[in-house]
Amino acid sequence: MKCAKFSVVGGWMLGAASACLALAPVQAHAQNFPAQPIQLVVGYGAGGGTDMCFRALALTASKELGQSIVIENKPGAGSSLSIGYISRQKPDGYNIAALSTGAVLNQFLVPSIDYDVMKDLTPIAMVAQYQVGLLVRADSPLKTLDDIIKAAKEKPNAVAFSTAGVGTPQHLTMEKLGEEVGVEWTHVPYKSGIEASTALVRGDVDVMAQTAEWVPFVRDGRLRLLNVFTDARMEGFADAPTLVEEGYDLVAPSILGLVGPKGMDPAVVAKIDTAFKAAIDTDQFRQCTDQFGLKTDYKDAAAFTQYIQQTIDKWAPVIKNLDSK
Questions:
Q1: What is the pTM of this model?
Q2: Beta-strand (E) ranges in 201-290?
Q3: What is the sign of the dihedral through the CA atoms of 7, 9, 11 and 12?
Q4: What's the CA gap between 17 and 10, in Å, rounded?
Q5: How far apart are CA 127 and CA 277, in angstroms?
Q6: In the 8-state DSSP scheme, what is residue 220?
Q7: Residue ranges of the chain with per-residue pLDDT less than 50
């Protein structure tokens, strides 16, 4: 925007000139952004799929932006703690966060959460989808989904399953599945997929429903994948049927993207979006998605905003129904 020069000062001309003066610092900020390192908050522990893949993205995005991107892990409450934190930061582009499904849906599940995803955040870009699986130990007597359901029916709450947190897609899908088949099982939440996987390997739980941090454990033979909660069978794990194939109309909600606080300058959003879009198309990110079983799915800010709203519209009623039991 160019501001006109006025020979007469007064009336609307003065107002227009004032508006231009007010806009100038905003334009300068966008043009000079970034002028310092950017903090990227990840709501899961170090070493998990979300953490490692955002670190891979940050390597290329930092080069694109000309400033370092510093990863800060703030795990807890299905990544809701990190989103609560980011919603309170300045919307200057220097504090951004990984947004996952758990943080979106937990606002309807946990009374203490005081943010509204659609009102308090600026969606920047979606980068991938989680792919959720149902797993047991390799030596488990539970060989199929039917075996797990039968065991849960024989002893209510005796079957314990681990996840990376309350309100995560895998948690909600397991609750919905339990509702459909008429069983109750015990949810054991952890702070990351790695912790949830390790708990299953140790025998602390009987089953795990988790995004694909389990891939290395399946490949080395410690865990066995029974089913996937995706809309189609996972590439590389074609022997595991979907829940839909098992007769249940269930696909886990899946979001993995980038957000900032409400009120970010669209020009700054566009710069960050462009940098991360370039980072998606790299060997580092492809290797990470292969290692942790993520599915690349890029959406710009507008499409990402719409996708978040669609997820809320579909799954918030499910959560409210669980809460009313």
A1: 0.79
A2: 207-211, 223-228, 256-261
A3: positive
A4: 10
A5: 8
A6: T
A7: 1, 4-12
